[in-house]
Amino acid sequence: MVQDKSVYVKLFYDGERYYGWAKQPSRSTIQGALEECLQKVGCENVATRASSRTDAGVSATSQVVKISCKGEIRLDALNRVLPEDIAVTHVTQNIGRVLSKTYLYVYPERWRNPELVKEAAKIVENEVFEALFKKGGSKPSSTCSIALSSFKGAELVQVSAKGFGYQQVRKIVKLLEMVDQKKVQPCELKALKSVPSADSRWLILVQTNVEGEWEKIESGIEKAKKYINRKLLTIRALSAKWELALRFL
């Protein structure tokens, strides 16, 4: 009798050509591609559940996924049949609590008013973050940590929290952009009724900090690195994003 098995894995993926994590009829998604390839390597009754439900266009270097199925889960074989832009990089049998998640947004321009942006980031951290929650994601934390830095002509917005709501990080970046362009003052952020979302292509889920001991899957790490290096040769506009992604593998 074939036994039920389950493992937890970390996934790398380039989300640019996918309609997000979750399966959708007649659309390419990360979950759909993963489950289809698990069946190709002999798994039956496949079920997957991700710790983060990333949106269309969002990439990841550390998406934690529980895989359950009947049959042996052969991860090296799985990496061979997965599309070139998806790879399994780590595995463990058990995990504990998710302690935090970190997203990195690579804003492709330099801030015009960096001091205003810093002031706005502090307000978002302590007073606005929870208000940006919208139904459709997991319940967010009441506060977050925002780190601002620069890299090769781009501005980096790194946001960490225990949980995030729907498009929450992209809304934070849009708020900072609006302040930078002086469309709104930092002191006015709490009064905003609605906030649009920044472009998803520049967002990466770079870390899921979860209790547990992880084993590296070298075939997956090498596959991810080769894919990123090919991207760096062909897409200069996104080079900062992919150079930074390499650091988190």
From TrEMBL:
This is tRNA pseudouridine synthase. Keywords: Isomerase, tRNA processing. The keyword tRNA processing applies. GO terms for molecular function: RNA binding; tRNA pseudouridine(38-40) synthase activity. The keyword Isomerase applies. It catalyses: uridine(38/39/40) in tRNA = pseudouridine(38/39/40) in tRNA. It comes from Candidatus Marsarchaeota G1 archaeon OSP_B. Residues 13-82 form the Pseudouridine synthase I TruA alpha/beta domain.
